[in-house]
Amino acid sequence: MNVLRKGDTAIISRWFPSVHGGAGGMAEVQRKLTKMDCIIEVHDARVPLSGRNQKFLERLRAARPHLLVYNKVDTIPRKTVPYLKKIVTEKESSSPFPLHGTPLFCSATKNKRIDKIVPKTVKLIHEFFKHNADFAKLEYTIMIVGVPNVGKSSIINAVRETCTGLTNMATRVGAQPGITRSVLQTIRVSQHPKIYLVDSPGVLEPTPVSYERALRLALCGTAIDSLVGNELMAAYLFNFMQTRGITSYCNYMGFDKPVDSLPELLRGCASMLQSRRKTRNFDGTGGYSVKLDLELAAKFFIMGFRRGEYGKILLDDEDLPSGVQGWEVPEAKDVE
Ligand SMILES: Nc1nc2c(ncn2[C@@H]2O[C@H](COP(=O)(O)OP(=O)(O)OP(=O)(O)O)[C@@H](O)[C@H]2O)c(=O)[nH]1
Ligand SMILES: [Mg+2]
User: What SUPFAM superfamilies does the record point to (predicted)?
Assistant: First the structure.
């Protein structure tokens, strides 16, 4: 899983395609970046290492203050956060352009640490430009960048609500990747100091390091499911859970005990959902066969993960110290 063969990178990069803005979108973001006072890079806390586009970010950090934000912290065990901060900071310390400040872990939908974003950003801007005598500003424009579906627009809405009390959505949010289609108008999120946030489409293509990392990103909804394939994602998720002894899918899927293989899981799930697919027989008889809909079962299994039904699960868990688990699962309930 970890070693990419020739051609694999091309397949993987198709999973994160131009619908998110592609080269045009990236160029648009880069053009706008030169006018920004700061960049907030947003990631999904379940994959704190898998989704970074290192080259782009290093170039960026040389020119602008940059805050690294991990959103959706509600989806990972709270005890892993201090370790993740340390792991990310250590990995970045060898970069020619190390991180500005410490990464912030927050949740837009649960309103966790959203109130820290504006003060942290203003502090970073002041530190970055402190030797620049021309830099005396009363207002700041900040762009939010990141891979698709990590919650960039949700963060803008949440910051705006925290700072102004306005609860209507200033920018559209959705569970599919590619909701924000172009660099949008600036949205004022704070009056004192005057701060404008600029939303952007999820144009940062992750650098594909391995199939494993690409599949983790896909499980978090940053790719187009139909291009990756639900059964491939389900196979990865099942293997991930099985190797860690996570069996919390049983309640959600109506199993009274863990299953041994993916086919068993998908067949059991399709039977539980009573989902069958009618397919034409190509044997000249003109008849039809009815089979269990395993594709739908795979989607259902993945959806359970995305909705947090199996508990809080950190996917990039390899670097945690031994004895610290990357998952926290609900108590097993008796199946009726
Ligand atoms: N669990 C959880 N879900 C979140 C959080 N923030 C956002 N989401 C969900 O993540 C999905 C994507 O949110 P968006 O704000 O549209 O993400 P985006 O990065 O702007 O996406 P694109 O514009 O498509 O690139 C939505 O279903 C949100 O409800 C969070 O803190 N926790
Ligand atoms: Mg968006």
Answer: P-loop containing nucleoside triphosphate hydrolases (SSF52540)
User: Is the whole-model pTM more than 0.85?
Assistant: yes
Domain ranges of the chain: 8-198, 229-328
Question: Residue of the nearest CA to atom 30 in ligand 1?
Answer: 72
- Residues composing the chain: 336
User: In sequence order, what are the beta bridge partners of 1?
Assistant: none
Ligand 1 atom closest to Cα of residue 175: 27
**Residues at the annotated binding site?**
71-74, 149-154, 202
Q: Nearest 10 degrees: CA dihedral of 14, 20, 23, 25? A: 180
* Stronger pLDDT, 241 or 21, i.e. the higher one: 241
Residue 183: band (very low, low, confident or very high) from pLDDT cuts 50, 70, 90: low
Smallest CA separation from ligand 1 atom 23, residue: 180
Helices in the chain by DSSP H: which ranges?
8-15, 22-33, 54-63, 81-93, 117-128, 152-164, 211-219, 225-228, 230-244, 249-253, 262-273, 294-306
Pocket of ligand 1 (CB under 6 A): 71-72, 74-75, 107-110, 148-154, 173-175, 177-180, 201-202
- CATH code 3.20.20.140 for 8-198: no
**Helix, coil or strand: residue 329:** coil
* Alpha carbon distance 3, 24 (integer Å): 30
Select from 83, 52, 9 the least CA-distant residue to 318. 83
Q: N- to C-terminal Cα distance for the chain?
A: 38
C-alpha closest to that of 30 among 48, 67, 55: 55
Lowest mean pLDDT across 141-150, 197-206, 210-219: 197-206
Expressed in angstroms and rounded, the spacing between residue 262 Cα and the centre of ligand 2 is: 33
Q: Which of 144, 152, 154 to mutate to test the pocket of ligand 1 (most atoms within 8 A of CB)?
A: 154
Spatial separation of the C-alpha atoms in residues 150 and 48, rounded to whole Å: 11
